[in-house]
Amino acid sequence: MLSQRIITAVFLIPLVLWLVLFASHSLFVIFVSAVFLAAAWEWAALSNLGVVWQRSLYCGFFVVVLWFSPFLPNWVFWMSSVLLWSAALYWVLSFPQNKWSPQRRWSKALVGVLLLAVAWQALISLHEDGHRIAILYMLCLIWVADSLAYFSGRRWGKTKLLPSVSPGKTWAGVWGAVTGGALLALSVPLWSSLGAMEGTWFLWIVLSVFLVPISVLGDLLESVFKRQAQVKDSGALLPGHGGMLDRIDSLLSVAPLFWLGMVFL
């Protein structure tokens, strides 16, 4: 499994780096839209929309939402992100005892559309505004946190984080991820010298450390939906990683709040 993850990453990371740093904005939009459309297809399955026509209709509706989203003011996405991920925190912490949870398939589907659309808009806006280095930093933050969480959890993980949601996650993994985020933040002056990253070093450290638990929340929220759907992975598109949604679950939670953080920085 680990070897498959590494091989897949070796092929995907150079492509992502090229698209973020060097591709035209139009090509970046097309690629990100394709990734999120694939994630929407998988989210439909997690929402118990198992029939092909239902999933196709869901993806069609998602495309319409993406089409109109650029015409909405930014504060709509910021407010939506804060409200959605506050609700997500409640769903995760209270699972499976919570009395209100997105059990019905259409409510699950609607949550998916909103989460995916807000993250999509955040990425597109950051790239359009020229914050390519900042996007790369955000992706590295997620990758470093995920990698250190994996290895520190395997090495020192004893106390489970939320066993009812994700039995494999431990507190040692969380602290490893936070440590990785803090260490990456120490390199902010180097990133700033490349352009498109403004603000004080201290604020970048605070933002980075804050976003690491948010990335964990994105992973845990998807785990809630997968456990309700009784599946291990959202799909099998990426060998060693599962589905597309399994790969971008942390990005869904981090991107909107990173975008909001960039406004203040």
Q: Which characteristics define this entry?
A:
265 residues; mainly alpha; two-stranded antiparallel sheet; 75% helix
Account of the 3D structure:
This protein has 265 residues and is mainly α. It has one domain. The protein is 75% helix and 3% strand. It has 10 helices and 2 strands. It has a two-stranded antiparallel sheet. A hairpin with a 3-residue loop joins β1 and β2. α2 runs antiparallel to α5, α2 packs across α10 and α4 crosses α5. It is globular and about 50 Å long.
Short description:
The protein has 265 residues and is mostly helical. A hairpin with a 3-residue loop joins strand 1 and strand 2.
SS element count, helices: 10
Q: SSE string, helix = H, strand = E?
A: HHHHHHEEHHHH
* Oligomer kind: single chain
Class by alpha and beta content? mainly alpha
- Radius of gyration, Cα only, in angstroms? 18 Å
The proportion of residues forming helix, as a percent range, comes to over 70%
Binned strand content: under 5%
Strand order of the largest sheet: 1-2
Overall form: globular
List strands and helices in order, with pairings.
Layout: H1 2-21, H2 25-46, H3 52-68, H4 74-93, H5 105-128, H6 132-156, E1 160-162, E2 166-170, H7 171-185, H8 188-193, H9 201-229, H10 244-264
Antiparallel strand pairs: 1-2
Helix pairs in contact: 2-3, 2-5, 2-10, 3-5, 4-5, 4-9, 4-10, 5-10, 6-7, 6-9, 7-9, 9-10
